[in-house]
Structures are given as structure tokens and as C-alpha cells.
Amino acid sequence: MSHDSCPCGSGQSFESCCGRFLSGKAMPERAEQLMRSRYSAYVKLDIGYLRETLWPKYRQNFDLYGTTKWATESRWTGLSILALEKGESQDRQGTVLFEARYLSLGELRTHRELSLFKKKSGRWYYLQALPEG
Length: 133
Description:
This protein is α+β, with helices and mostly antiparallel strands. It is 26% helix and 35% strand. The chain is built from 4 helices and 4 strands. The protein has helices spanning 19-22, 31-44, 47-52, 64-73; strands spanning 75-86, 93-104, 107-120, 123-130. The chain has a 4-stranded antiparallel β-sheet with strand order 1-2-3-4. Strand 1 (75-86) and strand 2 (93-104) form a beta hairpin.
């Protein structure tokens, strides 16, 4: 078992945190867990997980090339969860406001997003980015 820290910043090992979701051994029970595991998927270049956790209706338009390019050309340096609304195991939807920091072309950048997550058949999916405010 690997004891490397999880890229999502939880303080847990990758194996006991997001690794179990990326490997398919478990499914996120809360929207925040899905958000963190999707960030870890960018770090680990697990593009298949990003597509698989996208709301099914939107998978046909998933930009495999663009997503792979962004994930590969970026050095992911940290994730901060700024706010949560709903998204617990009993909820059907929730939002997560986050900032993901990354180094790209020698410049430190921040991707800030308010993400909407929905649950379908007991499983959480990323639906879309929402406007803040």
C-alpha cells in the first residue's frame, strides 16, 4: 500500500483517499469527495476517470484531446475547497467552490470554479461550472 499523500490536500494517503475512487474500489459518497478525486485525476493524468464522472448526457462532447493537453502541460500544485452547499450522501445535488493551483508555461495560475454535482442512481457526477454570485 502506498503512503504517498493524496494530491487533493486531505492529509490522507492517496490509497485511502482519492486512489480508491480512481481505481474503482469505491465511489464518492459526497460531492466534495468527487471534486477532490477529479482534481487528483488531473494530477495523476487519469483522463478516463474525468470522463466517467462527467454527467452521462455530456460525455459525448467530452474533449479528450483538450483535457489531456491541459492535464499533461500543467503541474498541479494544490487544491483549496472554499465553500460547499449540500452535496452530502443523502442529497441529490450540491455545489463546491474551489481553487486549483497549477504551473503552466512557467506561470503560477489559479482555476477558480463553482461546480455543480448531481447524483443519479446513487452515484455522484460532475454536471457543470456555474456562475459565481
